[in-house]
């Protein structure tokens, strides 16, 4: 996207999207990712197929759309990334902004591993027959089988499983056996980060152009796959499993929690990515249209991917002569084991395999753009002057961020990599995210206040949010998130991969990973109370007063600017002042 110098909107030097459609496409690309073709179908399958769609759509309506709207309003109004936007909105919980940056950066280090695996399969698709099509390979073991039947031994594994485990990963027996570096995966990880850098090194200027392709082309492939899959024998059985509810499953609380968690993971609530991108919007942009476009497109994509994946499941159940509900599906195995296994028996198998994994690459790149952009935007907002003085150009900062994330991702391309990946995903995408979402809603809907958020929207667009959004912000979303957080804590299970249970020391590392993002919330609160002047009561009152709003009683802005200084050396007055 080109920088539009005529749209700096009350803040000299901050670029904006030259066309609003670029933000919408970037937002869709951020929300629509690998989770739509991996995590959503997996949770749907595990939760009884059609029974999952009911709570999923309900959670989208009362939590997904309202909370995304909330994040985009705050980002567009504050004209800052999540760190400074949250620091201005609620000084006491400014650590929430830092936590969003931390969790996005942590996820970017291992999310790119999925892109790396996708690249490995993409290049492997230029072979006929496909390398996971038979057991006549050097990496196959005696218990390998080309076709699974009801009489197949439980100790057997398919050619597709063995390609994933013994050819690509060459995995060890557990997390305590590190193994050696997988040079092929190492080079593909480097290639993945080079692609990321080339797409975002110019900031929104380059990202805005790339998303025209990466956000739209996956739909062409999804439709092509769907047309092909529905013609396969048994496909209708898989689709029936996907859309016909198992009503008994709706009585299980875990199904509802999984639906809410998928909404948070997929749309990106709590990651700060969309808040960072919305800070580059025109100040008077109608944010509701973007909210609806991003959230609804995201969910429709998940449902479209569901039809594609479950039609393939039906085909696999037909070949194996077993019910759809008895297929072996677990986590990443859905994308890298079950679906490639279905490709192997399709006509023109290499073509379909190439298209599928190229689609995964496009989906992964979009989401990865957003997670890296959170870190870059936050660093520029807080330390832009000193960083540019040292690094000369913003492109060098982007290179530094990408290089650091690449180095932190190297353990994932060792033979122990799959265990590291599963451990990080479990404690980041499940544990950290729920805590982060809870405190974000508390900071914005609670302490910043629905009344102020509504006033911000009116100042930008001329109209306040309707009663539905205000009720969701004040009551529905906080209540549901609290219930989900409590359930997550009570029903928490340690990380595992297939039948492997991690040892206690590895679980401890998992909690350290989780705390790497959560810890900023209490630290931020303590720091705010420490640096503010006055008695403890005065400090507490000042800590819940937004910087960007005037004191209603006297028209003076609270002197809390020292707190922002501690995080970002931001000394100018807020760009907007509002009397409520």
From TrEMBL:
Which keywords does this chain's UniProt record carry?
Disulfide bond, Membrane, Metal-binding, Sodium, Symport, Transmembrane, Transmembrane helix, Transport
Question: In its keyword annotation, does this UniProt entry include Translocase?
Answer: no
**SUPFAM superfamilies named in the record:** SNF-like
Q: Does the keyword Transmembrane helix apply?
A: yes
Query: Where is it chiefly localized?
Result: membrane
Where along this sequence does the record place binding of Na(+)? 29, 31-32, 36, 266, 298, 363, 366-367
What parts of the sequence cross the membrane? 21-40, 52-74, 95-123, 180-198, 210-227, 255-280, 292-316, 351-376, 397-421, 427-450, 471-490, 510-532
Q: Which PANTHER family match?
A: SODIUM/CHLORIDE DEPENDENT TRANSPORTER (PTHR11616), TRANSPORTER (PTHR11616:SF306)
Family of this protein: Belongs to the sodium:neurotransmitter symporter (SNF) (TC 2.A.22) family.
- Protein name in the entry: Transporter
Provenance organism = Coregonus suidteri
Its taxonomic placement starts with: Eukaryota, Metazoa, Chordata, Craniata, Vertebrata
């Amino acid at each position: 996207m080109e920088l539009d110098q005529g749209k700096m909107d009350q803040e000299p030097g901050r670029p904006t999207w030259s066309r609003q459609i670029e933000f919408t496409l970037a937002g869709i690309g951020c929300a629509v990712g690998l989770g739509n073709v991996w995590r959503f179908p997996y949770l749907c399958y595990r939760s009884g197929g059609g029974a999952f769609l009911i709570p999923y759509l309900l959670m989208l309506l009362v939590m997904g759309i309202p909370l995304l709207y909330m994040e985009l309003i705050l980002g567009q109004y504050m004209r800052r990334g999540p760190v400074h936007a949250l620091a201005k909105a609620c000084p006491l919980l400014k650590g929430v902004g830092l936590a969003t940056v931390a969790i996005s950066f942590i996820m970017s280090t291992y999310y790119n591993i999925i892109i790396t695996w996708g690249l490995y399969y993409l290049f492997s698709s230029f072979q006929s027959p496909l390398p996971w099509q038979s057991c006549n390979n050097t990496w196959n073991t005696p218990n390998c089988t080309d076709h699974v039947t009801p009489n197949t031994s439980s100790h057997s594994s398919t050619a597709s499983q063995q390609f994933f485990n013994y050819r690509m990963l060459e995995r060890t027996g557990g997390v305590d056996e590190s193994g050696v570096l997988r040079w092929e995966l190492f080079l593909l990880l480097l290639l993945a980060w080079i692609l990321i850098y080339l797409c975002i090194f110019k900031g929104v200027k380059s990202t805005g152009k790339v998303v025209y392709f990466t956000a739209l082309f996956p739909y062409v492939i999804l439709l092509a796959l769907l047309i092909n899959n529905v013609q396969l024998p048994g496909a209708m059985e898989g689709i029936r499993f996907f859309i016909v509810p198992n009503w008994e499953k709706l009585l299980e609380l875990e199904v509802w929690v999984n639906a809410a968690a998928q909404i948070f993971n997929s749309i990106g609530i709590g990651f700060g990515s969309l808040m960072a991108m919305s800070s580059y919007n025109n100040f008077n942009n109608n944010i509701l249209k973007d909210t609806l476009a991003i959230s609804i497109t995201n969910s429709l994509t998940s449902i479209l991917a569901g039809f594609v994946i479950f039609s393939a499941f039906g085909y696999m159940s037909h070949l194996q002569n077993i019910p759809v509900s008895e297929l072996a599906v677990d986590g990443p195995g859905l994308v890298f084991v079950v679906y490639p296994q279905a490709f192997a028996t399709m006509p023109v198998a290499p073509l379909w395999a190439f298209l599928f994994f190229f689609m995964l690459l496009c989906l992964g790149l979009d989401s990865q753009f957003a997670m890296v952009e959170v870190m870059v935007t936050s660093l520029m907002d807080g330390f832009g002057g000193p960083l540019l003085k040292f690094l000369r150009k913003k492109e060098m900062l982007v290179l530094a961020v990408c290089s650091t994330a690449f180095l932190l991702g190297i353990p994932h391309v060792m033979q122990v990599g799959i265990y590291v990946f599963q451990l990080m995903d479990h404690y980041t995408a499940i544990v950290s995210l729920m805590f982060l979402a809870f405190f974000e809603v508390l900071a914005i809907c609670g302490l910043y206040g629905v009344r102020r958020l509504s006033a911000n929207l009116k100042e930008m667009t001329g109209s306040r949010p309707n009663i539905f959004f205000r009720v969701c912000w004040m009551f529905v979303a906080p209540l549901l998130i609290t219930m989900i957080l409590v359930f997550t804590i009570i029903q928490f299970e340690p990380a595992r991969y297939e039948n492997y249970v991690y040892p206690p020391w590895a679980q401890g590392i998992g909690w350290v990973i989780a705390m790497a993002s959560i810890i900023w919330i209490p630290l931020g609160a303590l720091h705010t109370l420490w640096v503010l002047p006055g008695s403890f009561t005065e400090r507490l009152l000042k800590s819940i007063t937004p910087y960007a709003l005037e004191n209603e009683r006297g028209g003076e802005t609270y002197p809390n600017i020292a707190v922002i200084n501690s995080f970002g050396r931001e000394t100018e007055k807020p760009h907007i002042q509002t009397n409520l």
